[in-house]
Fold:
Amino acid sequence: MNPREARELMYELLSLFFSGATVLFGSQPNAVKPKAPLVTLSTISVNRPMNPPIRVIDGHPVSYYPTTMNLQVDLYTKGAPVDVGEGRLVPAENTALNDMLDFSNFIGSEYFINWSHRNDISLYPSGQVQDTTALINNASYQFRSTLELTLNFTQKAVGYTGLLDPASIKHSAGGTEDDDPDVYVEPEFTPSHSGGGTPELAKEIIGFFTEAEIKEENTNGQ
Structure:
């Protein structure tokens, strides 16, 4: 999984829970703000170690980066109407905080734990649910709440240059793990949307050895 795939997975999760709201990625240009409740997903940062674990698969080095992605979820809503009696003004109740707490409860549930295991990720709140209504600068909504999340997953960098697609790792007999005996590498490459990498660079390879003979000599040359 890479950060883009992780964001798409989070988008699916938010759409599953906030089924009656519109879910958008944060800072999405030219996005029309809907009248219904709005949920935005923003990426704050991505952290990875400099020296990840490495394994050689079918002659190709594979780096396994433990990746931490810090995310922010914002909920914008008009709240709930309050019945204050016939003929009287009906102000709106701020439900943003309570609604976000419901989502926080959801990601602590057994359902979510099973979902995260299926997708090989971990996700948990990295802060408290906050009422950020005072930060709204859009007249379309009255209330806002914010929750920061930490998402952990493993990203693979395949090949001598680290540019091969993770899908290059294949199995000939139905295996699923990288250390299964039927694993092999069939190089596949997809250029980035910013033009990074080339097929020639991605398929570069370096020689390797799996065993070596060690000969001991004493100081007399024997």
User: Anything to note?
Assistant: The chain has a mean pLDDT of 86. The longest helix spans residues 3-17. Residues 3-202 form one domain. The chain has one domain: 3-202.
